[in-house]
Amino acid sequence: MNTFFYHDSWNSGCRHPFGAVPTAGRVRIRLEAKGGETATVTLRLWQSNGGEKLVPMAFDGSGYGCMLTVPERGCLLWYYFVIEAGGDRFYYGNNRDNLGGVGELRKEPPPSYQITVYDRQMKTPDWFKNTIVYQIFPDRFCRGHDPAVRLQGKKGAVIHSDWHDRPYYCKDEKGAIVYYDFFGGNLAGMEEKLTYLQELGIGAIYLNPVFESASNHRYGTGDYYNIDPFLGTNEGFAAFCAAAGAKGIRIILDGVFSHTGADSRYFNRFGTYESVGAFQSQASPYYDWYRFKNYPDEYESWWGVDDLPNVNETAPSYLDFIIRNDDSVLKHWLRQGVSGWRLDVIDELPETFLRDFYKTLKATDPEAVLIGEVWEDASNKISYGEQREYLCGYDIDSAMNYVLRRMFIDFVNGVRNAAETAAQYMHLTENYPPEHTYAMLNLIGSHDVERILSVLGGTETDTAVAKKKLRLLSAWQMTLPGVPSIYYGDEAGLLGGKDPDNRRTYPWGQEDAELLSWTKTLTALRNDLACLRTGRYLPLYGTGDVLVYARAIEGGRDVFGNIAADGLCVVALNRSTREEHTVTVHTDGLIGGTLRSLTGADLIVETVNGAFTLTLAPLSAVILRGEESRRKRCGVLLQPTSLPAICGSGTLGQEAFAFVDFLAAGKQSVWQILPLTPPLDGDSPYFSRSAFAVNERLISLEVLRDWGWISSRDLAAFYERAAGGGDVQAAKDGLLQTLPALSALSGERRDVETFCEANAYWLDDYAVFVAVADHFGTTDWTQWPDDIRRHQAAAVKYWSGKLHAGVARVRLLQYAVHRQWADVHRYARQKGIVVLGDMPMFVAHDSADCWAHQEFFQLAENGRPAAVAGVPPDYFSADGQLWGNPLYDYEKMAADGYEWWVRRFAKALADVDEIRVDHFRGFAAYWSVPAGAKTAAAGKWRTGPGGHLFAAVRQRLGDLPLVAEDLGSITDDVCRLKNELALPGMRVLHFHGKERTDRRFSFDTEARCLAYTGTHDNNTTLGWYHDDLDENGRRRLREALGCAADVTDDALMDAILAYLYSRRAETVIVPLQDILSLGSEARMNRPGIVGGNWCWQLASAMAYRPYSGKLAALAYRYGRVNAED
């Protein structure tokens, strides 16, 4: 068969959603197919403890797909593909390692892929997901003073007088334990050390069994209702729970319910208790709890240990005793103050018992936690031939994560490399529902395994390397999803082999200070940073010895939708014992800005183009933190020409002031505009006849009337003519030609003269340029007479005099429009609103700037461009884009101290408060296309002025409030320049929303950036959603927003605006069209299309005024309101 088949369960194109699925949810499954003949493909679906179903898959031209609706009750589903083609049958299923992801084609039935279906109502306790657990083996933690405790009266007990003795089992010749050794650790000791645990950052204590028992480990329960007298009393236990609770520490008990002790009041083999036990009489009320083979001496016991007789967990009286009675064991200890249970050997508990226990626990205390002892993948454990479904929502909240512990150790000890480890962890994430993933008890030590320092190679004489490994492991443990569990003493450097050596006493006074300090550092970080607890887990790098991942919260909500502080951390691990590794991590824009070390080292890492480079010492762990916004703000993008007007384009009259009022009412602090410069043909403000002048079309005739420059009668006549359907702009231009001459002005004359003097650098040339262009009927100055074409001083003087009236008119109009804009700008400032302007990188050839400063441009002798600007060929255009703008001669500009740029920035900062620098990448390198080339493909990259230009400008003007437009294909040199200048960049939902490595779609931003729904060059966001995204893209966006498939346009845009406002970015900007939920008809510009652009305009202020309340609510909700508000 020549067809190539492919399925990757981690790829949303093959299976969506990723991982576990809630009940009654839908799953799209697809098998890609390339080349070869058409086949018949069937999905073989199997439900555990259920049956088989064959689902036909439809061919769509590039693969075979189907949509599944999963069962309404939690279960496990398994699938593979059956392929029939050319008379042969093939199978496509899971890979040989059963890890999920990319599968394999086989001739025989393959391993299946797993889908965990979980009860959509299932929820694990939030407090538990956010805590750190400390496991205590009670006899070995601390011996406190308690007058009620007498270490006597327990048969077979040997008491150590020296706390630092080694534990030891006293066994007979057959290996049976005849004496248990005790060290006297007790409740009083634990209570004395609560402050230590609080300082360690502990939020919950998991206690190995504390009930009365003959053994030191107490897994052979003697009395479920009594605390072992060696530990204390029932009253003392309640007091301990209360004292712990006062310090914010909860208590979790170890429940041993698959067996009891032979020496118990229930079995009472040795007659220790006054009760009649099952061993003593078949009339005992406990007789049906046990399974006797040959009464009374032969009975079922735990792994053949006679001291631990198994119980019949489904016996009604036992269920009542442990679970159902009003004062059942479960309920009794909850009332005494415990917050949950850990169930010993859960796989030996029948499903009926376990689910009854879980249900009753949650009914009694919904916040109580239930942890199961599971050593394998908890989602698909097979116990005694039965498929268990622990994580389907009916059994447990958490499991002891021994699978993860094995991953930890295998990676650190060099058994598996980073790529293999990352795949194993992804597989676990795929199988576990998120509620369980984040509630798994992530242990690296316990009472059932050797001490971790010993496992890592530590010995009594040498722990140096093992300690470094443990530091690395602890960093990993504390920064993964799930609940870290510290086994008492591991943080202090305890060694220990197999049981009982792994249960040594805590080394009070002999702790390893370095390890203890490191552990406190890590626990403090985890407790301080929500992103390390319930943030997203995002794999970034996994090769050889090095593993790198990020934990992130953006939007003020964690992965469960709970309110949580934004944060981003990067964790990097090098497990090599000898090699230093330098790695470059590419994050595809996930991470930007500066990363700073949180783990002691004075390390600062700068990201460049979404990538960063780290050098990691052998056996090291580095935790870095990204920047967060210090002050957030929000704004609206609207060009003044889009303001409503009685006729014609928007102006700087009353509607501009009304728009500022709207922004203020909406608690907006930024008004972003496009360039105010006068456009050439096509109305593009990015292709204008001056880089300094302001568009005269913005002049408000109503304001001129108020100044007395035009009469009310003339204005009314203009309105009448415009209403007749004529050329409004021509009529307006005609009216402006009737303005009084400067000599006729009285109060404003000196103001006009002052303005002209202050702006002579550009205004004198601009006025002559416009007058001469009007005279010759063209702005193409290369067609003018040679002397004025060359901007010779005598010719400029001559034409300035010859066309004096026209030159004066231009000056007067520029005064008028600048004055009107200054009034609007001043009003905005008074309202606490800054204006973010826009500076195009290039100027037009047919501009006053190029004509007046020909020496600063790459021009031929005839004045035509020798080379022009453009964009190289890319994915979107095989020929690139030929813009045609003349290129700067930076060498000559540098020789002049970049005076033209200094003047340009100074003028811009007089007009606006902040400047967006368009096509910022051109300052690092620009695409130079030879004049006459038919396409941009003939161009080459040329080095731009870089930081030298900005240094010259800053030397004259000081620091500049700039924003770098860094959209499109941006190279590292551009990003380095942006970083060097400490400029914020831009992020746009339309471009930068991505499916990340955790298989979630998100729009990720950095603190120092401006985030947008879209820009003037994009479709409106609603138009983008409907017209530009495919169905898969629309679905991913809706899922990120939490919207249903049938969401209305208004509700969708409300969700998008809220999502944008929630981002990490210091500034968010929304085009007004998106606030109004407008579609493609309201688009401002369509790059590459001539005509019909830049003309969108509001019909009335009533179109936007009602939205101020919505914007204000968003600004308050997401902390984007000015401090004074």
TrEMBL record:
The keyword Transferase applies. Keywords: Carbohydrate metabolism, Glycosyltransferase, Transferase. GO terms for biological process: carbohydrate metabolic process. CDD domains: AmyAc_CMD, E_set_CDase_PDE_N. It holds the Pfam family Glyco_hydro_77. One of its GO terms (molecular function) is hydrolase activity, hydrolyzing O-glycosyl compounds. Residues 135-526 form the Glycosyl hydrolase family 13 catalytic domain. InterPro entries: GH, GH13_cat_dom, Glyco_hydro_13_lg-like_dom, Glyco_hydro_77, Glyco_hydro_b, Ig-like_fold, Ig_E-set, O16G_dom_2. It catalyses: Transfers a segment of a (1->4)-alpha-D-glucan to a new position in an acceptor, which may be glucose or a (1->4)-alpha-D-glucan. Its EC number is 2.4.1.25. It is an enzyme of class 2 (transferase). SMART domains: Aamy (SM00642). Belongs to the disproportionating enzyme family. NCBIfam families: malQ (TIGR00217), PRK14508.1-3 (NF011080). This is 4-alpha-glucanotransferase. It comes from Megasphaera vaginalis (ex Srinivasan et al. 2021). The lineage of its organism: Bacteria, Bacillati, Bacillota, Negativicutes, Veillonellales.
